[in-house]
Design a protein that fits this description.
Radius of gyration: 20 Å
CATH topology of the largest domain: D-amino Acid Aminotransferase, Chain A, domain 1
Helix content: 25-40%
Shape: globular
CATH superfamily of the largest domain: ATP-grasp fold, B domain
Number of domains: 3
Structural class: alpha+beta
CATH architecture of the largest domain: 2-Layer Sandwich
Strand content: 25-35%
Number of strands: 18
Length: about 375
């Protein structure tokens, strides 16, 4: 397989193409955004996702089709799946794009989650909260990412405003989990069922947007995370990269959501793992042998939100690599990220370099914390 069709043309598609070119792969992106940042790395079909002419061109050219985000119309993916090899499957996408289906999937696989309930009216929400209790989070069932489509419920009087804010549409309400940290695990599974796991990533968010990810080598909950994500992979007979976001409560992991694609919390793998998540996703969907997911040294990823720092300043920090997406600066938009690897320094020096990068990214609060000194031995309360 040489020709890869991608639904979407954003930064994840762009980084896939960057990883695929050394493998001799060519790319075609179906994306309605005329300024798609992946466009320069392949052929851009600038058309709506459901455009039949674009579908014909894509299916006649591509050996395999994949997608870079969950909000591609499901019927489009199901239709393409009947005409061309497509990974991950539409069944995985159907579950991942609907928060209620996703939580029901976790429950069916005996994966722990926060308490949850579907709500379709304000009256249903009010009734459910009497049993669930506050605080809680109200989320739209679809179209939610980077903090969008959700509202925190702290008191009973918050309910009508939150319902109005989310558009009075079908939602899911979840109890708030008192977690010690947010982590994710990324795995890749090929067409024969071989599965590799990346080291757990510890994640830090602000305003619902990921700001910082750090790999955690030899983490005590790694095996638990691997076993959890394996259940999902095998249930869907999954092919490609899958990311699972988790809350850690003492020594137990609660599933939050999964993404059937390459994921923001795995960007550190570009420089920090033997084979990046992007390359391994392509290897899996193309039927190529998987590359090692091992990481030997500390690595981190700092998201660049809204604006880009000076590239020379970033490169002045040893071990730092800037990745700019070619997107216009805009409030709350992901316009790039920085990876940091620590194969040549002490824990203290790594923290110092990471703090400098966080300051450049406007994350002064995170810059004041120490991260690496607990990397190998997370402290449980």
């Amino acid at each position: 397989m040489k020709n890869i069709g991608v639904l979407g043309g954003g930064q994840l598609a762009r980084m896939m193409a960057q990883a695929g070119r050394p493998l001799g792969l060519d790319f075609m992106f179906l994306c309605p955004d005329q300024n798609a940042c992946a466009a320069s790395l392949g052929k851009h079909l600038n058309a709506p996702y459901d455009d039949p002419v674009a579908h014909k061109e894509l299916t006649e050219w591509a050996d395999v089709v994949t997608y870079e985000f969950e909000n591609v119309p499901l019927q489009v993916v199901e239709s393409l799946e009947q005409q061309v090899a497509l990974h991950p499957s539409s069944s995985a996408l159907a579950v991942a794009r609907d928060r209620l289906s996703e939580k029901n999937c976790f429950r069916s696989l005996d994966i722990p989650t926060a308490e949850f309930a579907p709500v379709n009216t304000l009256e249903e929400l009010t009734a459910v909260m009497k049993g669930m209790g506050l605080p809680a989070i109200l989320k739209t069932r679809t179209q939610g990412y980077d903090g969008k489509g959700q509202a925190v419920l702290k008191k009973e009087t918050d309910l009508p405003e939150a319902w109005e804010q989310l558009g009075k549409r079908p939602c899911i309400v979840e109890s708030k989990v008192a977690f010690q940290r947010e982590v994710s695990v990324i795995a890749v599974r090929d067409q024969k069922g071989e599965t590799f796991f990346y080291p757990i990533t510890e994640n830090h968010h602000r305003e619902g947007i990921l700001r910082l990810s750090i790999n955690r080598l030899n983490d005590p909950v790694q095996d638990q995370a691997n076993a959890t994500i394996r259940k999902i992979l095998e249930d869907f007979n999954y092919v490609g990269v899958l990311a699972l976001e988790l809350f850690q409560v003492e020594d137990q992991l609660f599933a939050n959501e999964f993404a059937p694609r390459v994921h923001n919390t795995g960007h550190w793998t570009i420089e920090g793992a033997q084979t990046s998540q992007f390359e391994n996703h392509l290897r899996a969907v193309c039927g190529l042998p998987l590359g090692s997911s091992q990481s030997e040294n500390p690595a981190a990823m700092v998201n660049l939100i809204s604006r880009l720092p000076d590239e020379n300043q970033i490169r002045a920090v040893p071990g730092a690599t800037p990745h700019f997406y070619g997107k216009a600066e805009k409030p709350k938009r992901k316009v790039g990220h920085i990876t940091l690897t620590g194969d040549d320094c002490t824990m203290e020096e790594f923290d110092k370099r990471l703090a400098a990068l966080l300051q450049m990214a406007g994350e002064s609060q995170l810059a004041g914390q120490k991260f690496l000194d607990t990397a190998l031995k997370p402290q449980f309360p």
